[in-house]
Write a structure and sequence with these properties.
Layout lengths: L2 H11 L16 H12 L6 H8 L3 H22 L1
Length: about 80
């Protein structure tokens, strides 16, 4: 993925309601969540535990980020298909 396409995807998806919350602790910026999601979607022959350790985050956090972006992408399907 090129930097331009990454930035475009981040820009399109950052306004999804899943990235908005009313909690005192803010979410990690959507662009970081996207980078993490793409990293994990591109992993081959490596466990999610090891990949999370490489990124310095918990395994559950990676699943959360991936779920956020997959839900946001599913909501956009009618717009692009």
């Amino acid at each position: 993925m090129t930097r331009g396409s990454f930035n475009l995807l981040a820009q399109i998806l950052q306004s999804d309601p899943i990235f908005q919350n009313n909690f005192p602790n803010p979410q990690v910026p959507p662009i970081i969540q996207l980078a993490t999601t793409l990293y994990f979607l591109g992993l081959f022959e490596i466990s999610t535990v090891r990949g999370a350790a490489q990124l310095g985050i918990a395994e559950g956090t990676t699943y959360l980020y991936c779920n956020h972006y997959i839900l946001a992408l599913v909501r956009l399907l009618p717009r692009f298909i």
